[in-house]
Amino acid sequence: MIKHQKIVQFIVGILIVVAISFPNIAQMSPIIYAGAGCGGYGANTGAGIKTSAAGAHCDWCACWCGHLEYCNPPWLNPKVPVPMSWLSDGKTCSCPTAGGGSSSQGSGQSGSQSGSQSGATQSTRQTGSLTPQQARSMANKLSNELDYKRGGDPWSGKTDCSGGAERFVVDSGGADPARSTYDMIKSAEYQYSAARSYINSGNLQPGDIIVRGAGGVAGNHAGVYIGNGMVWNSMSGGFRAESLGSFLSRGGSVKAVNLFTR
Amino acid sequence: MDTIKFNNFNIIVVILVILGAAGAVGIGYYGLKETSSTSQLSDQTGTSASLNSAQQTPSSTITEVVWPSNQELGVGSPSGSIPSMSFSPVVSQLSGPAGNQVVDAYLSAYQEAQRGKESYKEVSFNATIYQYLPLRDFLNALGIKINSEVYQTLDQTDYRAVFCYRDSNAIDRGLILSLQSGDVDHFIKLYPQLEAGLLSWQRTIFSDLKNIFFPDSDFDTTSPKFKTAYANPPDADQIEIATIKDESGADRFVGYNSSQQKIYLANSQECLKRILDAHPDDPE
Q1: Which of A68, A96, A206 lies closest to A159, judged by CA?
Q2: How high is the ipTM of this complex?
Q3: B51 and B85 together in one domain
Q4: Which of A124, A219, B27, B200 is 20 to 30 A from A5, comparing alpha carbons?
Q5: Nearest CA of chain B to the CA of A166: how many Å?
Q6: B34 with B88, same domain?
Q7: Would B283 be classed as within a structural domain?
Q8: Considering only CB atoms, which chain B residues are within 8 Å of A241?
Q9: Are B42 and B119 found together in one domain?
Q10: Same domain for B40 and B181?
Q11: Which residue intervals of chain A are DSSP H helices?
């Protein structure tokens, strides 16, 4: 009897320690953290059973669509928003491409090569940049499809300014710029004064992303230059176009220009 | 033996209970964590919304105006007599031409902002028959004008009067005008006209908006010199501002910003700042 009690006490102790140390162990076991790389753009990083908080089971899978954070199961890093590529219905993983289809080709790494603070680096533009007509068509299409939601998945129908810019570029066949304005600034070819000079010099091309300080609120605001002196961005709850001057008149100074590259 | 069986059974039950409890703790923790994360997001949004509500989001009022009144009362035609309005700090002295219900509604909103000491108030105007009072009739009723090039770019349904409480003797006024909606091609054509029109409007904007911005002032023909400034220094929210002296020697201010497919105007820099702060970017 005493022996059994000791065994029970030992097991209880172990379980308590485990429960305290790994409170979400019930969800962790089937999840594979794919880690850096994730097998490339569009790769399926794994599949399994996810136990929801309510105890229900559903199939899940994940694919990488150009962002390392997409590889992170959100419950391992709650700060990472639930990515669009996490599916809960057992569907095949897919990544958005131009035209809204799915693809598993190409590299999802940001096309923006590491820029310089001074902006002295001249990006090599690849051929096949967006034409103004293509940019206008994409802007019109996405204006009808997107509403504003801070932190929203760009492919969910509701997203924020940088999500809209990312969706615009990726759906146009460009290299994924980044999901957040902060990462866009980090990876931009032109930053701060160099970005401002780049804009002033009239070098903007359709598909280039401009990041500036946000007006009236903390943070940044991103818009996509679509040619003809127009910038497509989120405003008043939706995504619309305004003139470059109008766009630049709000918020703080220009922080970055991410060039459109394929 | 019975005791042993009982003990074994007991142990199994205890282990199962513990396992279940541990699982529940894990699930509960995870669930709470997720809820907390969501709550946190909600809280952040909520906080932001609350702050917005308190500090940024405008207090908006839909004011109904009996229709039709302006045209029938003879104050609605562009060539008709311009109604006079008094923005005397004494509320009881506020008055407009008898029967001009747009003026009445405008002054009523002014009074409300004054009584309520509302630091920021937006008012839109609805007609009782139509869903909105057309901008054309709003302008005509109040006797204010907009540069024709600019006017042609404006939406007739989406405009607002703004009141910014300063003190018991002063409520600054503003105006929010919206551009006609359309696709990108529409705006490619519209913006050059708008921007040229705004530059052109600078010459007459003081007298054009006199009835709501400076009802007690008269101006000579001197063209104001607009300059670029920032509503939120040092470099946020660029505005075009000008100050001129009216015939009594008092300084009068007009400032504006065109962004977000709107034109924001005010008769004080502080009020223009409040307008822009109430219409922030959709960020991140």
Answers
A1: A96
A2: 0.72
A3: no
A4: B27
A5: 12
A6: no
A7: no
A8: 184, 187-188
A9: no
A10: no
A11: 2-21, 25-28, 132-145, 161-171, 181-187, 193-200, 244-249
Distance from CA of B225 to the nearest CA of A (A): 19
Shortest CA distance from A56: residue in chain B: B27
The pTM of the full predicted model, rounded to 2 decimals, is 0.66
Partner residue opposite A230 with nearest CB, options B188, B239, B278: B188
Closest partner residue to A26 among B3, B26, B187, by Cβ?
A: B26
- Please give the share of chain B, as a percent, with pLDDT higher than 70: 64
Judgement on whether residues B174 and B65 belong to the same structural domain of the protein:
yes
Does B276 lie at the interface with A, CB-CB under 8 angstroms? yes
* Strand B170-179 versus strand B154-167 pairing type: antiparallel
B43 touches chain A (CB under 8 A): no
Phi, psi of B34 (to 5 degrees): -65, -45
Task: Please indicate whether, in this complex, the C-beta atoms of B281 and A251 are within 8 angstroms of each other.
Answer: yes
Q: Do B73 and B105 lie in a common domain?
A: yes
Tell me if chain B has a CB within 8 Å of the CB of A4: yes
- Domain holding B240, by residue range, is 58-278
* Residue B258 and residue B141 in one domain: yes
> Tens digit of pLDDT for each residue in A199-212?
999 999 999 999 99
Task: Quote the number of domains for chain B.
Answer: 2
Cβ of residue A14 closer than 8 Å to a chain B Cβ: no
B126 has a pLDDT exceeding 80: yes
A29/A11 Cα distance (integer angstroms): 20
CA A55-A59-A65 angle, 5° bins: 125
SS (H, E, C) B111-173: HHHHHCCCCCEEEEEEECCCCCCCHHHHHHHHCCCCCHHHHCCEEEEEEEEEEEEEECCEEEE
